[in-house]
Amino acid sequence: MKRLKKRWIFLAILLLLVLFWLGNLRILVTTRVELTSDKIAEEVTIVHLTDLHGAVFGRDNARLIDRVAGEEPDLIAVTGDMYTYGDAEGQARALALLAALTEVAPVYYVNGEHDNSAAFRADLTAAGVHVLDYETADVTIGETRLTLYGINNVYYSPTFDLANAFTLDESRYNILLAHSANVPAFRRFGLDLALCGDTHGGQVRLPFVGAVYNSGVWFPERSGSGAQYTKGLYPFGSFSLFLSSGLGTYPVPVRLFDLPEIAVITLR
User: pTM (2 decimals)?
Assistant: First the structure.
């Protein structure tokens, strides 16, 4: 009898652990960030998505699409790695998702290292997605004038400088879409905001500690290195960096205290 009781306790604990693991992979959370600037004449709502890695939230990602649509965004910013390299099914899911989101709001996309494919970018363009491959897009919402900058870097050289590719109009609110962050270069260029992904928030986070591992650094948020930027809003005077922990996982399907994230950025 005692042996049978222990077995049921073990099975119950195992079931709870499986449910907890699945919940950390499939429960969507909405992170809300508000930023203010004298350049914003009328409120702007941006939904930021990143690092799907082919994940599914409801049939045909209906749950994800409905969550985004419910925010009534003025635009949707997507910062790469929407599928994992070599995953044809994930690539098809990512294309279908982004095509469907164009019915919700204009979608602006930059690639990461996994979805760095000219063919995929061409498919997105054909589906109505605005692919920013070292390009800009001027967007007017009411009386608010934005400029979106998109870069396709999967790494940064020591001499990386946005001024080599773009000219900044300081009268506009300037937003960079980039898969991974380069805080010194972004600040130097004079941006108002950069939206990035890549880190997955560390995927495994601990209370009061933050990410366990990022970019080759253990406990990066306590490291004082560039790897300390893992998740959330980082203000630097007139420039802000927002790093989303994204939606999917890579290389292992694990998240802990780091739920899949839809980010809603409100500019006031």
Answer: 0.91
CA atoms within 13 A on the CB side of 255: 23
* Residues in the chain, pLDDT under 50: 10-21
pLDDT for 66 equals 98
Listed residue (262, 266, 264) closest to 65, CA to CA: 262
Residue 164 tokens read as 């080599």
| C-beta neighbour count of 53 within 10 angstroms | 25
Residue with tokens 């893992």: 230
What is d(CA 181, CA 242) in angstroms, rounded to the nearest whole number?
Answer: 9
Residues 6+ apart with CB under 8 A from 137: 108, 130, 147, 148, 150
Element counts in the chain: helices (H) and strands (E): 5, 16
Residue 265 bridge partners (DSSP)? 33, 46
> Token pair of 32, please?
């809300």
Half-sphere exposure of 24 (CA within 13 A, CB side): 18
φ and ψ of 43, to 5 deg: -55, 140
In percent, the amount of the chain with pLDDT more than 70 equals 91
Question: ∠ at Cα 204 (154, 116), nearest 5°?
Answer: 20
Task: Tell me the average pLDDT of the chain.
Answer: 91
Report the amino acid identity of residue 15. Answer: L
Tokens 């702007």, residue?
Answer: 44
- The secondary structure of 2-29, three-state, reads HHHHHHHHHHHHHHHHHHHHHHHHHCCE
Evaluate whether 108 touches 150 at the Cβ level (below 8 Å). Answer: yes
Q: Exposed, middle or buried: residue 12 (CB in 10 Å: 0-12, 13-18, 19+)? A: exposed
Pair 249, 24: CB distance under 8 Å: no
